[in-house]
Amino acid sequence: MKYFKNIVAVVMLSIFPHLLLSQMRPLDPMLSDYQYPFDVHFMNIKSQNNELKMAYMDVWPKVSNGKVVLLLHGKNFNGAYWKKTAKDLSARGFRVIIPDQIGFGKSSKPQSYQFSFSQLAENTKAILDELKIDKIIVLGHSMGGMVATRFTLQYPNRVEKLILENPIGLEDYKTFASYQTIDQAYESELKNTAESYKNYQLKFYYDNKWKNEYQPWLDMIAGWTLHPDYPKVAWNAALTSDMIYNQPVCYEFKNIKVPTLLIIGTRDRTAIGKDRAPKELQAKMGQYQELGKKTQKQILGSKLVEIENVGHLPHIEVYDQFFKALFNFIM
């Protein structure tokens, strides 16, 4: 009977995928009832006349190799999606620091804040200073790649190695897409739903192939849209979208001097503002199979690992290939 019920459930979800979405629960802006994979700590930050709390996880190995890895999340994510990466790094002797940037995850959602990659880098440095960590290996995914780039340029003496996993910002979106005001971006963010988020992820992350292991990373952001305080989250999302559009890092890759690895899923087509670009330019945006090679040439001595037919999230979609490339580079 149990086997029969399982079969029925699978068939029902395949016919009516919205049933899966309907099981999501509302999440408040601070994700207070969403459990992270490791203990969460908070650091008080006074920034831009705001009293803020910045969340982070600090994962210690049983036997340390003396190295620390900093994992920086993307715009549609938080530190929790680094669970397996952090666990495997820790098992190999690395201490792992995983912050939620201000405006994301369990960190504060200020409603009056000038977001900049320099500010996010400074906030991240404050955590490292608090923990008395001097040298780090930095890994940034998606928007986290832009934060990692700015951090490396701002504090080069703190960075031992840099890894960029399908980072956005490998091109200047202003040269393709028209500007939208923060108010316009906010109105757009307010329209997000669990279904629209899933459709976006299917298109750019997973090539229209949904697996159960992807669900938690959808639940994190989709649950916000079901909460009455979602406008607070949407406002921060609009502010950070404006930051990404107006603060390109691609012109400064040539200034990076630390050993750098690019891990690029070549199927990825993520590009900020693509829907606002002329149709003849949209197809030219987010061409990661070309952008990875271009960026490698800009960063002197950098290495490129291309993962064919993989989208925006190698560390979720093809974890073993991702981790092999990462581990070989940092050891």
Automatic annotation (TrEMBL):
Domain of life: Bacteria
InterPro entries: AB_hydrolase_1, AB_hydrolase_fold, AB_hydrolase_sf, Epox_hydrolase-like
A biological process term (GO) from this entry: acylglycerol catabolic process
Keyword Hydrolase: yes
Enzyme class (EC, first level): hydrolase
Known EC number: 3.7.1.17
Entry-linked Pfam families: Abhydrolase_1 (PF00561)
UniProt GO cellular component terms: membrane
Coiled-coil residue windows: none
Protein name per UniProt: 4,5:9,10-diseco-3-hydroxy-5,9, 17-trioxoandrosta-1(10),2-diene-4-oate hydrolase
Protein source organism: Chryseobacterium potabilaquae
Gene: hsaD_1
